[in-house]
From TrEMBL:
PANTHER family: ODORANT RECEPTOR (PTHR21137), ODORANT RECEPTOR 19A-RELATED (PTHR21137:SF35)
A single MF term (Gene Ontology): odorant binding
Keyword Manganese: no
GO biological process, any: signal transduction
Protein species of origin: Conopomorpha sinensis
Keyword Transcription applies: no
Keywords in alphabetical order: Cell membrane, Membrane, Olfaction, Receptor, Sensory transduction, Transducer, Transmembrane, Transmembrane helix
Compartment(s) where it occurs, according to its Swiss-Prot or TrEMBL record: Cell membrane
Name of the protein: Putative odorant receptor 32
Length: 194
């Protein structure tokens, strides 16, 4: 019992920490988007505040990109293994006799919920990074000096690269992956059972 509770504690903390990091990074992108949009709406003392705020935004954007690189390197392979094991578990539960389904409801719910949460939060991260790229372009760069234009161009160049987390360095983690995987599992189970 101690071994099982320890394993449960470690696995749940692993998943919760990764989900927290994903949502936190998406929220940081949203805050940067709001700040750079607000910067574009400034009308007074534009030149004085622009460089200071722009340097702050660039530094925070670099921190976010560093966090994403770390997430990719730390969680790519374990996420791929987790996706494969969840899909396999969902498929195998379908071959259990109908009267045994109540015993496996929690396993099925766990696999589906975790798979969906990963895909949803990674999709939110991708969407927020795209919104940030649009906000950088709409920040009023045409009203600033050449030095600030170069800084904005560099941020825009980095913001236009898609932020996509990959499971096992192969499968993009997003809602399309969730939907297509569920569809493939449904087709597989339908063919095998009937």
């Amino acid at each position: 019992m101690i071994q099982e509770s320890t394993i449960l504690f470690v696995v749940s903390n692993y998943h919760l920490f990764f989900l927290f990091l994903l949502s936190h990074t998406a929220v940081m992108y949203r805050l940067l988007t709001m700040e750079i949009t607000e910067m574009g709406n400034l009308t007074t003392d534009y030149d004085n505040h622009m460089q200071k705020r722009l340097c702050n935004i660039i530094k925070r954007h670099q921190l976010i990109l560093g966090t994403i690189r770390q997430l990719r390197s730390l969680y790519s392979k374990p996420l791929g293994i987790d996706f494969f094991s969840n899909a396999l578990c969902i498929c195998l539960v379908q071959f259990v006799p109908v009267e045994e389904y109540p015993k496996f409801v929690f396993v099925l719910l766990y696999c589906l919920t975790l798979f969906f949460l990963y895909c949803l939060l990674c999709q939110m991260l991708t969407n927020e990074s795209e919104k940030f790229g649009v906000a950088v372009y709409c920040c009023g760069w045409e009203r600033v000096n050449l030095k600030e234009k170069k800084m904005i161009f560099e941020v825009l160049r980095q913001a236009q690269k898609p932020v996509v987390l990959l499971a096992a360095d192969f499968v993009p983690v997003n809602l399309y992956t969730f939907a297509s995987t569920c569809q493939i599992i449904y087709k597989f189970v339908t063919v095998m059972k009937f």
